[in-house]
Design goal:
heterodimer; B: 151 residues; mainly alpha; elongated
Chain lengths: 257, 151
């Protein structure tokens, strides 16, 4: 398949995915469910971001990977596609989907440390073995980078409903661990190229720094998502505690004892 | 000291929020001021050990999370009107000083991660760096003790 045909196919797939999302959102809205337009916008932006073109330079390649493997997954996950799917499909399909999401295998895959090892591990394998020299430009590799990024982001953010609950510490630890693995990999690329690849020094160093600082920006976003979730959950817990107290004491809600 | 959790004294929570934010701010200031603005530090120094690289990566990643989480913790304490300003300030100073001291001794000296500055006599730089770090920790600890005494 020529590169051009590959791009057209990719664009077609992106349009189909977004159309399916919109069909689901339309269905929800028609029956009166709330689905904020913000989610449509971020999901659309995430899908569009997967179409980022490659470039012949290492820096261009790295930009493509930062966008594909980190920026696009965060945007897609913020659109809560699994929640939408669960609510938009017919009952039987929903039950089947819930069984899959609640399965042992899904639980392991979205356990944050596992997802972090898969994501960071595949990057280390790619750049620190001769894999990059062999498959660095294969189109399916970009798909892999996006999917592992999506898995990791899903596992850490947990915005969609999963049966398996994971504590804040585990999610924070996985995020910090993966971000550290990224930072270290970027610094090693700054001094040593992937085995078997000839790169101009300036190009390689610019690419490594792009990986380092680009990763920081996305990590900051992920940390914000996780921290704000904790903030919201604490708020809900406070409200519940206050209600329980007012029921016990008979003091009306809002009035402080 | 106890870890932050339910039922912990509000001053301890404020202090922990400060420590997290302090570490994050120190890591962030190091990155912007010495790496980006002054260009004193190198992105990578060939004498860096593998352990230095890993330590740097971990603290770099932790710094981002710490500053975000420290601030959200402060917002949560404020919401419940449980924030102790003195404990928070003490925590920020202690966290920032401890990180700077770790950076200046273990990371720069022991693990060979980049130096403060290149092509100059390092002695005054190293001393200033670490003395400032100790002063920050001392000031932080004094504030924390006072915050505890006033509860």
């Amino acid at each position: 398949m020529s590169a051009h045909a590959g791009h057209s196919l990719q664009a077609l797939l992106a349009v189909a995915v977004f159309a399916a999302y919109e069909a689901g959102a339309w269905r929800l809205r028609r029956r009166g469910d709330r689905w904020t337009p913000r989610r449509d916008v971020v999901f659309g932006a995430g899908v569009a971001a997967t179409l980022v073109p490659g470039a012949p330079t290492f820096t261009g390649h790295m930009l493509q990977h930062v966008v594909l493997g980190m920026v696009a997954p965060v945007l897609v996950v913020l659109g809560r596609p699994v929640t939408l799917l669960l609510r938009a499909v017919p009952k039987t399909a929903r039950h089947r989907l819930k069984r899959v999401l609640g399965s042992w295998a899904a639980g392991v895959l979205v356990f944050p440390p596992v997802a972090a090892v898969i994501e960071a591990g595949s990057l280390w394998l790619l750049y620190r073995t001769s894999l990059f020299a062999a498959i660095g430009d294969e189109p399916w590799l970009h798909g892999h980078v996006f999917l592992t990024g999506l898995l990791f982001t899903t596992a850490v953010c947990r915005l969609d409903p999963f049966r398996h609950r994971v504590g804040l510490g585990v999610r924070a630890g996985a995020l910090i661990g993966a971000a550290a693995a990224h930072a270290v990999l970027a610094k090693t690329l700054y001094v040593t190229p992937p085995p078997g690849v000839l790169l101009a020094v300036a190009d390689r160093q610019a690419g490594a720094q792009l990986m380092y600082y680009g990763g920081d920006v996305v990590e900051l976003g992920l940390a914000l998502i996780v921290a704000l979730q904790w903030y919201a959950a604490r708020g809900r817990a406070d409200v519940r505690a206050r209600r329980a107290r007012s029921r016990r004491t008979g003091v009306p809600r809002g009035a402080r004892s | 000291m106890t870890t932050p959790g339910r039922g912990v004294q509000p001053t301890a929570r404020s202090a922990w929020a400060g420590v997290l934010a302090g570490i994050g701010v120190a890591a962030f200031a190091d990155e912007t001021v010495f790496h980006q603005l002054l260009h004193w530090h190198h992105f990578y120094d060939r004498s860096t050990t593998d352990a230095g690289l890993v330590s740097d990566g971990l603290f770099h990643a932790f710094g981002f999370f710490a500053v975000v989480f420290g601030l959200v913790l402060v917002a949560d304490l404020r919401r419940g009107d449980r924030l102790s300003g003195r404990a928070l300030t003490g925590g920020v100073l202690t966290g920032a000083g401890a990180f700077q001291l770790y950076d200046g001794t273990v990371q720069h000296k022991l693990l060979g991660l980049h130096q403060i500055r290149y092509a100059v006599d390092l002695t005054p730089y190293d001393w200033t760096w670490n003395v400032v770090a100790v002063l920050l920790v001392v000031a932080g600890v004094v504030l924390l003790r006072r915050a505890r005494a006033t509860v």
